[in-house]
Amino acid sequence: MALRSGTFHENYRQDMAIFRTRPQWGILFVLLIVLLTCPLFLSDRMLTLLTMIGIAIISVHGLNILTGYCGQISIGHVGFMAVGAYVSAILTAKLGWSFWTALPCAALAAGIVGLIFGLPSLKIKGFYLIMATIAAHFIIIWFILQLQNITGGADGLAVPKPKIGSIVLKSKTNYFYLVMTFTALATLLAKNIVRTRAGRAFVAIRDNDLAAEVMGISLWSYKLQAFFIGCVYAGVAGVLLVHYYGFASVDQFPFMDSVWYLGMLIVGGSNVTGPILGAISLKLLDELVTIVGPVLSAAIAAQAAAAMGLITRGLVIILFLIFEPRGLDHRWGMIKAYFRLWPFSHEE
């Protein structure tokens, strides 16, 4: 990332730092203050919305590593969220495990299932890999429904709320802080993963897998690593989702959510900040449609107003594919570059 004139680094450690200037540290400090204080002035509805945005960001971070960086397109991401969710639900509700013990086990289980369904990526790609991941979603949901004695089947399974010592995180404020903590950690981890040797290998495979293999990159190893990491993220998001509701049901993991998560990645862009921008944008768009919907239903047909959410999200994704295929993250980078170079039109 280019820096302002007069700002320079004296060593490699400074150049590799995530926050490299005082304004960046200042923005981070302000953002943390806002997140810590927003439960004081936001309603429960807004806290719920922010909590759902945080869970979506965690899940899309995993999809970004798998699809955005490694180029392995997946439309079965919500199925892997269901794996993590149900493993945690079973461990906590039926075996009496604590949330903090069940969480890593559930994330690991989702990652292992992702490895299994990632095996076809060694031989197929593109449209055929898309179909394989779609099949993965429905296979996972089918297994959950069939294992009725364990998972509760179509009836679902009651899940206890997380606890820290004797404090039960049952209020919306407490759970908001929990989700935002995991969201921050997931973002920081994703940023560091893409800067490692594995992250650079993911990008090489995405850009040209044949050239990557000629350079000595093991395709089967790094493709499976991408599936594992992406599904671990999905597992964590699934765990946070079911413990928020206090109930695990297959209805919480519809197939269309996988499509919308991919849409968030398209809108936000395939960078670390892309999932954040995409999740916030589409979730706020849904909230706006929810507010405007009753007004539209009085002016037009009620059926059209009911479908307005699907129409709006689909239209936004199409417009981004046509006019801004690199997402909001790219546009934000161009805006920053403009002000950094102003009043000059280009950099010498």
Could you walk me through the main structural features you see in this protein, from its secondary elements to its overall organization?
The structure is a single chain. With 348 residues, this protein is mostly helical. The chain has a single domain (54-341), classed as ABC transporter involved in vitamin B12 uptake, BtuC, CATH 1.10.3470. It is built from 16 helices and 4 strands. It has a two-stranded antiparallel sheet with strand order 1-4. Helix 9 (197-207) crosses helix 11 and helix 13 crosses helix 15 (308-323). The two termini are 16 Å apart.
Which terms summarize this structure?
mainly alpha; 348 residues; ABC transporter involved in vitamin B12 uptake, BtuC; two-stranded antiparallel sheet; 4 strands
Concise structural overview:
This protein is an all-alpha fold and 348 residues long.
**How many domain units?**
1
Q: Strand tally, please?
A: 4
Q: From the 3D coordinates, which CATH architecture would you assign?
A: Orthogonal Bundle
Mean pLDDT, as a whole number?
Answer: 87
Poorly predicted sequence stretches spanning 5 or more consecutive residues: none
N-C termini distance: 16 Å
Instruction: Please bin the fraction of helical residues.
Output: over 70%
Radius of gyration: 21 Å
Q: What's the level 1 CATH class?
A: Mainly Alpha
- How would a crystallographer describe the biggest sheet? 2 strands, antiparallel
What fraction of residues sit in β-strands?
under 5%
What's the helix count?
Answer: 16
Multimerization status:
single chain
